[in-house]
Design a protein that fits this description.
The chain is 41% helix and 15% strand. By secondary structure, it is an alpha/beta fold. The radius of gyration is 21 Å and the shape is globular. The structure holds FE3-S4 cluster (F3S).
Length: 389
């Protein structure tokens, strides 16, 4: 890799051991992936914020790093393992909270913005089209590349943090135009109401590691959010191209090597396969974190209805969206907890519940694995009907 004189100085440790460690990581990645240089980034988004996912070794890494380094570009943090204000009511134990508080303190010292959300683009960190960024959260990465037209690889937590500290990332993968060209074309059939997440779930399985071009996409921004999140969970997909009303530009199809049809029937069958046994202790909505329009839609439906109280209910969102919707939060609170800073996957849900229902395709991948849950998929409206009468 070619480094500038200043980058060489950082690598030699002249700007301290924290920046040295950060640039070593970026250069190592650049060498592995054949990057020629480091490029400036507009923002970083750092994952690895829950004690559940990073453990004691992660705390030590962050505390050591925070002694010597600070981010130099806007960098925001993914969800934690708990809601910092409502963790007791979630059923989280004292010991977990103590460990989580050390992680929060280390990130604060590093200068990382406490958004605690997987939807930074809804909470003030929305990159412009063409901007190079270094984001780690898979659902945010796919949204940034595909819907916003920004450019990022799916970073790991440490590499996103290193990029935030140096203000640069190695130029490889999706930062380069030639790697953003679709390799597989998917003709999407009409998507049944509420099944955009499962359309993404199936597209991810078809695409695997390839950038797909999805045709006939007629999604709202919120549907894109859940569609891309599920795709990034079932496939190693960090970007999709699409044609349809919200698409921004003509797509270069010269590299497409396969064409596949995904029918309405396949999406319905997938919903049946993931429907579980119809019993759950927790209904969890907000993976990725709910937007303001989603909170409004749910509050509109639930207003005037009565909670059934047959299970616990979590609505997960970011602090920014929570603060912008006080009335809606008031309505939803009659039916369950409106949580910020966390979600049903990175919270220690397995210590509290055994069976969880969700409207998220991404959660159908991670609830059974990371969350050790028996998971049931239902479209949002069906969940709202189940929790109210
Ligand atoms: Fe976000 Fe948690 Fe889902 S981080 S995308 S709500 S698994």
């Amino acid at each position: 890799m070619h480094l500038t004189a200043q980058e060489e100085r950082i690598l030699a440790g002249e700007e301290g051991p924290g920046r040295q460690k950060a640039i070593e990581l970026l250069v190592a990645l650049g060498d592995i992936y054949g990057a020629e240089r480091l490029i400036p980034i507009a923002s970083a988004q750092v994952s690895g914020a829950s004690f559940k996912t990073i453990g004691d070794a992660g705390i030590k890494f962050l505390e050591d790093f925070s002694e010597h380094a600070k981010v130099t570009v806007r960098s925001s943090l993914n969800p934690l393992g708990l809601d910092l204000r409502r963790w007791r009511s979630m059923g989280v134990e004292e010991d977990f909270h103590t460990k989580q508080a050390r992680i929060v303190a280390a990130y604060r010292k590093l200068g990382v913005e406490p958004l605690y959300s997987c939807t930074p683009y809804l909470a003030g960190n929305r990159p412009r089209q063409g901007a190079h960024i270094a984001w780690a959260e898979s659902s945010a990465t796919v949204f940034a590349n595909s819907v916003l037209g920004a450019r990022t690889n799916r970073e790991g937590g440490p590499s996103a943090l290193a990029a935030g500290i140096i203000g640069k990332t190695a130029e490889y993968g999706l930062h380069l135009e030639e790697n953003r060209k679709p390799k597989v074309m998917i003709d999407l059939g009409p998507v049944p109401e509420g099944l955009a997440p499962l359309a993404g779930y199936l597209v991810g399985k078809i695409a695997g590691r390839r950038v797909p071009l999805v045709r006939n996409v007629r999604f709202s921004e919120d549907e894109h959010k859940s569609f891309g999140a599920a795709m990034a969970a079932t496939g190693a997909v960090s970007m999709y191209a699409y044609s349809g009303p919200m698409s921004r530009s003509r797509v270069d199809v010269s590299d497409v090597e396969e064409r596949v049809a995904l029918s309405r029937q396949e999406m319905i069958r997938c919903a049946e396969d993931l429907s579980g046994d119809g019993h759950w202790d927790l209904v969890a909505i907000g993976c990725p974190h709910c937007s303001a329009p989603e909170l409004r839609r749910m509050a509109r439906f639930l207003k005037g209805r009565t909670p059934t109280k047959e299970s616990d209910v979590w609505f997960c969102t970011s602090r920014k969206v929570f603060a912008s919707c006080p009335e809606e939060v008031g309505v939803l609170r009659r039916f369950g907890k409106v949580l910020c800073d966390t979600c049903m996957v990175v919270a220690p849900v397995e210590r509290i519940y055994k069976r969880t229902a969700s409207d998220s395709g991404k959660a159908m991948v991670y609830l059974p694995t990371l969350g050790k849950q028996r998971a049931s998929f239902r479209p949002t409206m069906q969940l709202l009907e189940a929790i109210s009468r």
